[in-house]
Amino acid sequence: MRAAGGARGVALAAAAATAVALAVAAWWRARPVREVLFFPSRPCCIEALLAEAAEPGAPARPCPCPLPSGDTALSRLVRRLLSARRSLDLCLFSFSCPQLARAVQLLHRRGVRVRLVTDAQYMGLHGSQIGRLRHAGIQVRHDQHSGYMHHKFAIVDRRMLITGSLNWTTQAIQSNRENVLVVEDAVYVKAFQDEFERIWEEYNPANYSFFSERQ
Predict the structure, then answer these.
(1) Is the model's pTM score more than 0.90?
(2) b/e code 67-99 from CB counts within 10 Å (16+ = b)
(3) 152: annotated active-site residue
(4) Are 146 and 121 in contact (CB under 8 A)?
(5) Euclidean distance between CA atoms 138 and 109, whole angstroms
(6) Is 150 among the residues known to form the active site?
(7) Model confidence over 151-192: pLDDT tens digits?
(8) Which of 150, 185, 190, 194 is catalytic?
């Protein structure tokens, strides 16, 4: 009797511990994202992240490249981008990092609606990924005036804001002192989403003027 009672007590205690652990894990996952990333980030391989996003649950394949695949500011940024399920709005002054471009292109192939606003002068520089993304079918709009489109932010699923000093270039990621704030906050997300929508409409090609109007 005592043995049976002791066994039941151990089982109940184990079940209670499991329930507490699951509740804590659920609470942790439900917390709003609050993360700060600092650059430069050491070079890293993100092939495993891209492969998992492309084929969830598929066996991991070793990458032949010599780069390490540890936790870095770049890999964390890529993870946040790859969490998009419905939409990704990008407002970027300069975009020449092939790794980030591959992540964006993967999301587009997965059915995520991707829109990109960029600077007209910098999109044409050597190494820019804008042409590659546009060729893949991603919607791209750019400015048509003398000032720079100097924003650097992204909005994931209209719920998570990614913003900071970082240009999405290999030079900035690997060499510059930069910062990126990742936050789930409805007030800040709405402000940036409203700004994106305003610029997106302003840069509508239908509004472009190719000849000076006569006075």
Answers:
(1) no
(2) eeeeebbbbbbbbbbbebeebbbbbbbbbbbeb
(3) yes
(4) no
(5) 10
(6) yes
(7) 999 999 999 999 999 999 999 999 999 999 999 999 999 999
(8) 150
